[in-house]
Amino acid sequence: MSLHEWMLDGTLGLLVLILAVAVLHVRSLYISIVLFIAFGLLLALIWARLGAPDLALAEAAIGAGLTGTLLLAAYGRVSERRRKAEEPLDWHAGPALLLSLIIAVILMRAVWPLPDLDSALVPAVADQMAQSGVGHPVTAVLLSFRAWDTLLELLVLLLAFMAVRQLLPSLPRQPEAWPLLQAWSRLLAPLSVLIGGYLLWRGSADPGGAFQAGALLAAGAILLRLTGLLPALGWHHFWIRALILGGCMVFLAIGVAGYWLGTGFLGYADGWAGPLILLIEVFATLSIATTLTLLVIGETREVRE
Amino acid sequence: MTAALIALLLPLFTALCLLLLRSRSGVLVIVTSLLTLLAAAWSLYDVTVNGPQWLELGDWPPPLAIRFQLQPITALLLVFSAMIHLLVAVYAAGSQHSKTRYTDFWPLSCLLQGSLNALWLSGDLFNWYVTLELLGLAAVALVALSGRKAYGPALNYLLLSLGASLVYLLGVALAYGRYGVLDISLLGAMTEADTTTRIAWWLMTLGLMLKAALWPFHLWLPRAHASAPTAVSALLSALVVKGPLFILWRLWSEGAPTELAVEAGPVLAVAGIAALILGGWSALRTPWLKSLVAYSTVAQLGYALMALGLLMYWQLPALDAALWLFVLAHGLAKASMFLAAGELQASLGSKRVSALRGTTETMPVAMFAFAVAGGSLIGLPPSGGFLAKWLLLEPMFETVNHWPWVVGILLGTLISAGYVFRVVALAFDRADPVPPDFSPDRFAHWLALLPALVVWGLALISEPLIHWLTGVPL
Q1: For residue B425, what are the CA distances in angstroms to A190, A264, B373, B417?
Q2: pLDDT at residue B208 above 70?
Q3: What is the ipTM metric for this complex?
Q4: Could you tell me the residue ranges of all domains in chain B?
Q5: Between B5, B16, B114, which is nearest A245 by CB?
Q6: Whole-structure pTM over 0.80, yes or no?
């Protein structure tokens, strides 16, 4: 590794630590949230440096973007009195530091002896790539070899949405958006559709895929809704429910069809793997986008009638 | 295997359909539960006749893909969870006091059952992580059904559950970094007793103990289980905490090297005894009825943990039977107890234990259900609880220096008897009974009695059951 790379990595590592400390110790809650968003973006850069662009995209979209929106929305509901971040408790600091050090030592002891071993799974994945129907190993693992995990992750997202729905969250009244913001979001929303679609399409051969594309689409939709350019979205619309549940339903149906036709549960028939995976990814993207959108700005006036 | 797959997918499909149609049809869920029970029973029959089976998902060769494993215990747990689920669904649809009839309880409980069945069938460290996430989220959403007063406990539960998941995931990552595979049977053949493995296994154990509310990580459980609606409390206590316990069992009995298991066994067994005594003590002291039942869950999980610890310490596979009998007996008894307690407190209009004075006169069937279920928790013969305890005590009688464990079990039994009789004695104080505020629902009382009777009925089939569980042919 060259000196420049060392310096870049060192700066990134140092910055992320400084930001983490700042997020915890800044007096104003608002600044803390803004720093947290910056922290997420920096983390995304670090993932990219570590050679994991998939994670970088997801971190930027979900860790920084959507989480930031949620935190700001929560901030909008916190009363003025409680906005001042609480004084950090001094007596906590010593024991917490000690505990962290002990945990760090234990983890070091666990990680240190790990040889740079090549997992038995890497050659196995490479071996079966031709049959998987896609060209990128991560996508192959996510949608062919370990499709069951991905299907359950979609259900996790659905359950998270269901759990939030029980709390009857109501949006604070939106102030009128400024014209400039509206004009910008008119420009940005189509871009999110375009980039999302590209990520989805490229996902079969390069890093990217349903989660990243879905998060981007959701960002566009949230922007439009917050600037009042989109009507209220709610669970009571049939098409919203169909979109949210579509991902899981199509995935499960294809899985069962595979079992029925003798290619195994969640197995794809020869030659059909590519198209079927694309079909699943399209529905999963729409489902993830809608769920994330509703998680952030969903109108839930009718949970308990 | 087809039957097990049906038992797994049927609840998931039902949940998705209910959500799509925005339906809150209890009848549909009851029918599905019944079908799931039939499928589970069929898979139990299948596994008894044809032996253990594997299903490679997507037909990929083993180290690459996840595979489902159908063992006798797995099939038994499928049947058990379908049974409890059916009972609770009938209760939630039928009882006057059920507060969950017009809520999202129906799809959520179906999702809960689906995720639990996915957990029983899986044998993959990472897939277990995902099922644990599903289980935790479903449970939190169900607790939050109670409305505003349950938000605090639900949030606590969520945060602890997420933290526990991360700890477990860290352990999984270390194990994967060390061995490069995730399948527990493959790991079992590879693991060695080195530092990394030890730390990985302890991290996973820590996460699972938090999730299963095993002592000393039980503090979230009583509040969450007590503030949930009655039907949900029954599901959580009878089923949800058993999921992580199952993973813990597979992790140590199948995946860990013997040396590590022998070393970790006593720690878990001592934690089990502490749970028995301290959980029981809290149940003795709490003024609230549902908290009492929830603390008794903490205490009873101690037996299971102790069985697991001793099983690892002495390397005695025969204790498997004790462990799973505890789980079955406790699940049935606890479902009964929570339903009875929920009905009693809804009819009496008070959540206090002291309001139960004279309930043997006003609501005899519900109180009988509580007492009968309590009898199994204490371990009175010939209940299922007694069978489990007998199996646990058997190896202790054979060797003289095992007596300290026997003392622990005796103390635990004494305390269980204490908190059960605390309620029962109060219920027989008929001189000045507390009149119910609302009309009691006789149907729900009989329903609560049902699982308690099943636990006692286990005694009738005890011999074939034990032989079957220990794998000894008749």
Answers
A1: 71, 58, 15, 11
A2: yes
A3: 0.91
A4: 1-121, 122-470
A5: B16
A6: yes
